[in-house]
Amino acid sequence: MENCIFCKIINKEIPGDIVYEDEKVLAFKDINPQAPIHIIVIPKKHVKSVLEADGEMSAAIINAIQKIAKEQNIEETGFRVITNCGKDAGQTVEHLHFHILAGRTLGEKIV
Ligand code: 5GP
Ligand code: ZN
Question: In the predicted model, what is the mean pLDDT of residues 70-92?
């Protein structure tokens, strides 16, 4: 989709520090990391949020998250997965994305 920063990363129009890629999913390091490991996982098809994700897309993303956790060696230590949806959640990029946060003890609360 035009003017979508994450679509531009998918299309290699702007650089992304890519850590994982398959047919349906791309993952790259967050430009403004909130933890030692902060990875953004996105579907290659542009949808706005979880509200528009179908089962196939959701399964592909979960499958990618499992592989990334293994590759990043955070299966044992643990990690947090977050997706913001809409205004009140503070979603700033309107292309569905999941944050993987890890690499230190995270705060107890999400809010
Ligand atoms: P949101 O607040 O929408 O859940 O998260 C958007 C995330 O995308 C933020 O953590 C922000 O740092 C990250 N981000 C925004 N623009 C870029 C970019 O151009 N490249 C990368 N790698 N991350 C970005
Ligand atoms: Zn997009």
Answer: 97
